[in-house]
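FW: tagging you since you asked about this chain on Friday. Here's the raw sequence from the shared folder, copied in full. Didn't touch anything.
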Amino acid sequence: MYVIKVPLGVRSYTISIGNQLLARLGQECKRLYLGQHCAVITDRNVAARYGEVAVESLKACGFEPTLITVPAGETAKSLKMVASCYDQLAEHRLERKSFVVALGGGVVGDLAGFVAATYSRGIDFVQVPTTLLAQVDSSVGGKVGINLKAGKNLVGAFYQPRFVLCDLDTLETLPVREYRAGLAEIIKYGIIHDVELFKRLEQAMPKLLQRDPDTLSSVVARCCQIKAGVVGQDETESGLRAILNFGHTIGHALEAVSGYGKLLHGEAIAIGQVFAARLSAELLGFPARDVERVAAVFEKVGLPTHIKLNPAQREKLFEAMRHDKKVSEGVIRFVLVNKIGQVSFGQAVPLDLVEKVLAAPPVQAASTEQSAGANAAHSVLRAPHSAF
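HL: got it, structure written out here
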């Protein structure tokens, strides 16, 4: 088992990564002297697989949990669902010393974390991520929030969990498309911070795709270590933490305009990262051969790397980008790559260059292998009536 500390002074916490950890949830909560009453917030799919294990683990350690289920998918991150969770917490008499368990993927973690941050002016919560994307990204760092029609995560808070429990066994039941989407965030860490990790991913991707336990555990741990280090230096995204948004400016916009849930987050930011690499070549001299390497590693996973838009779709995309939280004084800013393993944040990009790169043909990467999941994503993106 790997144990990684997120260094935030009195708000520091640990991330545990390994197998057969879910059954220890109650013991970990007891170790931190969390309140007796708690709620496990999860979605209907995860509840069917892991809800009982989590609840029974808590009961065995003297806690009184209630299970709250929400619909699966990005649409659950809404004000309506937040209100529903509040009502259920109040009905079961949760109070200031109670806590929330976020059991599920990134959507559940964001929603449950936001509920915990705001109910009774803030109660404890713990993260139990069950998807690859959540384990390496959204469960760590304390960013919680919900979506508005205008954009993703426009309402939220920085609110740290008491601990994060990553049981790799939960990934065994993760659908192929969602698992591959999670790999997009793993690739991101190599591009923004660790060239050796990126090289390893180029070579070891077949093992990751097979969910090899040793490869998976070490790579997940390295990603959490990178994020913990960044968050420890910049908790509230006033500077360095912005590098974690590489590929997200256009990625979040793609999610918004295509209709949340039609395009998975990892699929959207795969396109966004290749797009950012191409902008980097135009503005920072990022080598063309490295743009091809970036595109190739996503294609090895079977993720989309390009999007073709008509003028009306481009305008919708630009409008969504203007509502992004990273827009400053009306200027759209990107995280761009200097070289693999090193990026610069807050880069203003002219709108005409964004249009030029969007209109350019796909990168001719060394590998063109696509998965069924990636092909499905492409078909969504190329269908203007269903996606935009």
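FW: Residues 367-388 have pLDDT under 50 and may be disordered.
HL: agreed, and The longest helix spans residues 213-233.
FW: great, closing this out.
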